Amino acid sequence: MRLKVNEFKHALNMVAPAFQKSTAMPICEYVKIETAEDKVKLTASDLAISIIHEYKGIETNKNETILIAYKDILNYVKLCKNVFIELEAEQVNKMTININITAGSAKMKMSGESEDDFPNIELDEFKYSFLMDAEMFGILQKKALPFAADDDLRPSMSAVRMKKVNGQTSFASTNGYTASILLFEENESLQKLDDFQLLIPRYLKHLEQIFSINNELVTVNVSGSKIAFQDSDTTLIGYQIDENYPDLEAVLNGHKDGEIVKVNKQALIDELTVAGNFTGSNNDVLFDFAKDKIHLKAQDMDYGKDYDNSIQAESSEELAIKLPYDQVIKACKACQGDTVHLVHHHTNNKAVFVKSEDGNYEVLIMPMK
Questions:
Q1: Residues 6+ apart with CB under 8 A from 250
Q2: 195 and 305: one domain?
Q3: d(CA 242, CA 164)
Q4: Strand order in the sheet with 352-355
Q5: φ, ψ dihedrals at 20, nearest 5°
Q6: 127-149 in b/e burial notation, b at 16+ Cβ within 10 A?
Q7: Which of 65, 28, 32 lies closest to 47, judged by CA?
Q8: Alpha-carbon span 54 to 244, nearest angstrom
Q9: d(CA 114, CA 101)
Q10: How far is Cα 278 from Cα 300, in angstroms, rounded to an integer?
């Protein structure tokens, strides 16, 4: 098969997320390359996710399939200065396949594998489908994933929950100590669907990288155990988590009658960044809410350092509460607008909700003892 180097390099980069985890199956270290007529298709899988990328290549009357070690061919292509590269499979014996590579006058061999050993990538029959703007994946990377659990011991809590109920679609995440919820304006494809709940694992972080290039509407197809995200040339297939998810609405809705403190977002971030240098290993900062200010206090018991400063705020009552400063910063950065609302509720363990000005995004932060 004859390929244009720049197009081939781009295609290899598109399937790169499937090679970011170590695997116990050597065949998953290989990329499958297929040519037919003027189409080139690359397929990669680590068994958790599979990525298929197709593009228009050089027209050929010969259908070919080659499996080659991904990292080896990627490193070679990165260094290749030629316009074209040619790959040819050579069956040495029943057990050995070599891939002969020609780029200009340069020639070399790499090991290949039989396509019979490559994972069979199939989807169950779709239960439902809808469209998402590619830009939404970047928003979820910023507003949802940072508040999800980052370990594999709690699969459901490491996922981002997408939920449609009573005509409202939202995304939510939690790690048990903080939680976020983002209201999503439904498009026509979602409005036609019945209520559903979908738990998308942490491979969500790859979707922005893959689909922001074309910046098209992405079709999301949901089957019994898998989810397929697809635009005009790339498909990512991953599993979905079938577990119960915490009822975040019951918790988040508990602040409706809470007190609201309005504060400049950047001023709060700046002060907390400084205060964080005085927290030691605890990461907690005392928020002392007064009528027209927030008093921030931190103490490093190990080194005897103290921090004590105030910033202007609009507050209606007095309250003192310890919060993890880094989580408050993370929540503020995820909020749009110049002002954030800090909402606290006495009956909810004095938890604080960091809320955006438009009311469509909020983060629950539990207090430190």
A1: none
A2: no
A3: 16
A4: 196-200, 160-165, 168-174, 178-184, 361-365, 352-355, 339-344, 259-264, 305-314, 293-300, 284-289, 319-324
A5: -90, -15
A6: eeebebebebbebbbebbbbbbb
A7: 28
A8: 36
A9: 17
A10: 5
In angstroms, rounded to a whole number, what is the distance separating the alpha carbons of residues 99 and 111?
A: 6
What is the tens place of the pLDDT at every residue in 115-159?
998 998 877 788 999 999 999 999 999 999 999 998 878 888 999
Q: Does residue 122 form part of some domain?
A: no
Report DSSP state, residue 125: P
| Residue 365 CA, distance from chain mean position | 21
Q: Which strand (E) or helix (H) includes residue 160?
A: strand 160-165
Tokens of 175: 């790690």
d(CA 308, CA 278): 10
What are the contacts of 292-295 at 24+ separation with CB within 8 A? 294/261, 294/263, 294/268
Asked if 236 and 264 sit in the same domain, the reply is no
Locate 3 and state its tokens: 């390929």
Q: What angle do CA 214, 220, 223 make, to 5 degrees?
A: 145
Q: Which pLDDT belongs to residue 343?
A: 86
What tokens does 61 get? 């009357």
> How do residues 277-291 score in pLDDT, each as one tens digit?
888 777 899 999 888
Same domain? 58 vs 88: yes
Last residue in a domain, options 246, 269, 284:
246
Q: Are 90 and 59 in contact (CB under 8 A)?
A: no
Distance CA 20, CA 123 (A): 22
> Tokens in use for 34?
């297929």
